[in-house]
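__Record contents__

***
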Amino acid sequence: MKSTLSAPRLLVACVLCLLWAPLAHAGENDPIPGVGPAGKINKLHTGFKFTEGPAADSEGNVYFSDIPNQKIHKVDAKGVLSTFIDKSNRANGLMADAKGRLIACEMAGAITAYDLKSKERTVLADKHDGKPFNAPNDLVLDKNGGIYFTDPTFSAAKPLPQGKAAVYYLSVKGDVIRLVDDLPNPNGVILSPDEKTLYVIPTGQAEMMAYAVEAPGKIGKGRVFCTLKQPEGKKGGGGDGLTVDTKGNLYITSALGLQVFNPKGELLGIIRLPEQPANVTFGGADLRTLYVTARTSLYTAPMEATGHVFGK
């Protein structure tokens, strides 16, 4: 059919198509085989300042932080939003444990535990070697009740309380062990489902690190597990938070979206969202729903994969 548009109008139409194409693609994904998404990405709640740290409990509730507003929010199994903690000391990463507590990395300088029923707050650790932490960021629980957590420099006091960014292990007895101190702002941290590997994703480099877990709180020498794909024209960009499914696939938040790597460090694909994601977890009754904190919003996506549960 012959076009009825004049040359100038046709040119404008083509330009608009090019401009709209990336926006139309945002949030639309071809499913990664065996992973997902298995349906549309949904903006569940919005209007926050900066969302982080999604964590699911055993009852189907999901908690997440709004760091600048110093709140921890709760979304129940029906999707209803409420405020769990009104003054969170800039809580960032969260994870529910088997004791009915929500463990939090408070950027004000502490690892704390909130009773999910009474909301009572307990400080688990706030120092290493007699000095305050910088600004605890993300965490993962092991089956022994220990906590691996990152302590980068973001929003930390100056001069830096610990003198450097690091990764720590907090034992059940309350001992704090520094494990890694040679990464540029270690951010996200997770274990493999068998807990034989500790993964750390720094923000200051594109390479994600893996460490063999020799015993609780004892790791071997680090190796590069994978290198994150970069936006066009960029290099050296790292990740933020991450989660893992029962097959050991890792879901790493990045400038491009959720980059999914298999246990061999091979990129399976990228799940794109309307906003840049900061952290992610599996939730829902069957642990087949991704909950993604992305800037001003909380998104969900139905998945083929099933999430792994830590701390049991």
Observations:
- Residues 101 and 118 are 10 Å apart (CA to CA).
- The longest helix spans residues 7-25.
- The domain at 31-302 is CATH 2.120.10.30 (Neuraminidase).
